[in-house]
Amino acid sequence: MSNFWSAWIIVLTLPVLIGCALLLKWNLTNHVGVPEDSTTGHEVDGIEEINNPLPRWWTYMFVLTLVWSVYYLAAYPGLGKWQGFLGWTSSNQGIKSLEESRLAVEKAKAEGLNVQLDREVFKADEVYGPVFQQFAQRDVLDLAYDDEAIKIGQRLFLQNCALCHGSDARGQQGFPNLTDNDWLYGGTPDKIKETLLYGRKAAMPGWIDALGEQGVKEMTAYVLSLSGRSVNEREAEAGKAKFALCAACHGADGKGSLAHNLPFGAPNLTDNIWLYGGSAAAVEETLTKGRYGVMPAFEQTLGKDKVHILTAYVYRLAHPEPTTTAQ
Question: Where does heme c 1 bind (predicted)?
Answer without folding.
Answer: 161, 164-165, 295
